[in-house]
Amino acid sequence: MDICFSQTEARVLGCLLEKEVTTPDQYPLTLNALTTASNQKSNREPVMSLTEAEVQDTIEALKSKRIVQEVTAGFGSRVAKYQHRFCNTEFSTFQFTKQEKAIICVMLLRGPQSPGELRTRTNRLCDFTDVKEVESVLSALSEHPKGPFVVQLPKESGKRDFRYMHLFSGEVDLEELQQQAASVATGTPSSPTSERLTALEDEVSELKKEVQELKAMLESLTS
């Protein structure tokens, strides 16, 4: 798959996919409406504070990839509105079921999630009878002939369920994630910050030993 969205591109596209279903009367979206949707504090992870200029730049990037197009609001109107052509249109490469589209939308907006979380968070976009149906759709997306579009992540320590992540922002290094999960489970530091802290603690310990030795030498000289 040749698509690789930045974090802001994924957010803007996710908002267009979402609002197309949840607020059809306001879709396509103006720049102002799209900025507001991108910066929502609910149903977004992470929460962003994008400016209209940043959203406009993102729109232009998506237009160059033929993922978004500009439409006029009506006869005589100068207000530009934007709609996606990512999937399920006559110009789209991808044709997804309603459930597949909902899962991809929520993943673009919120990142990796478990099947249970996806079932709850897609309730305004589609219906799932149970978690097993979500898992079935995830399986289809991971084995899609034009994909894969999602991947199962290594199980995190202390978590009961696997999480899944979309692949529209590039491949995921599963081996590295597995090592990180193992490090967390065993209490082994895995990040550069943790390694630096450990090194500093060792240095402090050595300095304390040297101070104690110097004190002992000083005492022996003065006695």
From TrEMBL:
Gene3D superfamilies, per the entry: Winged helix-like DNA-binding domain superfamily/Winged helix DNA-binding domain
Taxonomy, superkingdom: Bacteria
Family as reported in the entry's similarity comment: Belongs to the UPF0502 family.
Xref: HAMAP family: UPF0502
Protein name: DUF480 domain-containing protein
